[in-house]
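Run Autophagy-related protein 9 through structure prediction, thanks.
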Amino acid sequence: MDFPDDEDEPIGTTGGRLYARNDTHEQLLDSESFDWEVVPNLDHFFTRVYRYWEEKGFWVCTIAQVLNLLALDFTVVISGALLLGVNYSGLQEECLKKDSCDIWTVMIKKHPLEDGLTVWNLLSLLYLVICSVYCVLALAHLVMEVRGLAEIQHFFNQKLGISERRIKTITWPEVLHRLVQVQRTTRLCASRDLSEHDIVSRIMRRENYLIGMLNLGVLALNAPVMGARPRFLLTKTLEWNLYWCVLDAMFDDNFRIKAEFLHDRAALQKRFQVMAGLNLLMSPFLLAFLLMYFFMKKAEQFYHHPSSLGARYWSPLAKWKLREFNELPHFLNHRLNASNEAAEKYISQFPLPAISHVARFVAFVAGSFAALLLLLTLVDGRLLERDLLGRHVVWWLALLGIVLAASRAFIVESTTAFDPEAALTEVVTHTHYLPRHWRGRAHTLEVQEAFQGLFQFKAVLFFEEMASILLTPLLLYFSLPGCAGAILTFVEQNTVHVDGIGDVCSFSAFDLERHGNRRYGSPVEAPKPVGDVMDVGWGAEERMAVSQMQLHSFYKAARGAENSLHLEGSASLTSKPPSSALPIPVQVFVLAIQVKFESEADRDIFIDLFRPLAKYVAEHEPRTLSYDLAIADTDPTLVLIHERYATKKDLTEVHHVSEPFLAFKKATQELPFPFVKTGQSYYEQGIGYM
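Sure, done. The structure for Autophagy-related protein 9 is below.
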């Protein structure tokens, strides 16, 4: 069925009649009977609708999946040939050096198992069997996906009035609008009609929980690194395991949180440990496959663009930490891509002179040799085919070109004025991410290192992904079982039931009565957190609401926010939040400690001990609101340590028992000079702002 391209294009059909955007509800009911098409799994249905739109129609989706399967099969075949079919010792044959024989006849085995069933051949055969089984399952999945895509295509054409040609130019908000409008005549949900927010909440049901857990520091994903402190690691491999162990295991068929999931901590721990064993068994084969796949995918790109070695991009962890609740992937990717230039500008505020000098020297040497060889070939073109140190001159020119381009990627030209605060503010306008301990400290080493941990070299991201295949079993067996209780507590405390949707993360439900704050533009003031109730960060609800309403003009805040937010008063929520807008929760516990030294040298030794502790607190204690050290302006030997905690328990049961604090305490007790320490604790009253 063809649809016109003008502005009056119909948006749906009922029976055989197309209905237009300006048809009223009564006209539709008078002309057509109500069509019941209740979908049993609306989460899956709306997710397929979104993917169908994102990938631009049936044929594009089908072709992409077929080609992905062929690429998978090709990778398996090539890796199998390299593992079993190549005689690598043939590289040393004299006839190859004398160009008197063919490479194929020397290096390709006549039979893959001509060496017998060695350990290498057995492992290679097992690798091929596992990959072959996966390919068969992928083929079966493809067949089911094509059938599902055909159903979605019919729904788009017949119900939404969106043809294959039209879908290439229509926006997602318009698709959402038509999904809401089509419910005038076609019932999708048995209990009630769904709004745009309801549809997105269903698509993002599981992802919203993961966003909340990562922002609260619920998940213990600190991977051990030899010779360094543990590194927080989140990769695709870990994501798959988190989905299987937690997110996919949470819900029943009615999209309610399973009671046995919430109250069976041991079962969650066992799932982690079982997956640790499976990951350990599969890790050698998965590592071999991914190395082969990435080599074939990236080798040509690196050969023609060696400078990509120094390129940076947001890490998988950053993509989750910077993601807002109910934010679909294409909106997130748009924000992150738009922030790349600003992020590079902030990174360039802190050049590494030593690396730049080394890179300049390498580029100078490589460029000099390349220029010399080119000059010689201009004199006599036949020199290109001659040997130089056992290699053709062409080979040396190609190698020098790669070294030259790669080294230039690490040369930083300082052409911008040093203004880290302005540079970071520009990044925040896109990322909407500015932790409390970053504010006013963009120039510090701590903030710089934390930012670089989110915006990393692509080469580092690749090695992290490969290393995670080996580290994932350790995290699943040792780290994650220890935070199983925190995961269940988070789910229990931050789940609400919405009629027609099911259980969702309360932070994604525009639940301003529960999480709202007037200082961020909320029309209602939520009760302040008491005791150990978890909170994802003040202003999160409002930032999400403002972002969604800016993306979708028809979005309306739900559940306690029917009057919606005032965008004029909340414009700063999509950029750097002003310090005056930070709400103060009731019962924030404050500790002010003064330390008096006999000399500035003694003070500096103490500060050197304090610095790594402050860095640890900023990165690992999200409920420590402030942790700062100040020097008196009239007495340089007097120091004030100002600490603020969400509750007193966050000081006594978290901070005071942490290993870095205990090590700091022991080190200060062993200092060879005296100092006087006085202090007082307080409770904030919520008057004024901090």
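The chain has 25 helices and 16 strands.
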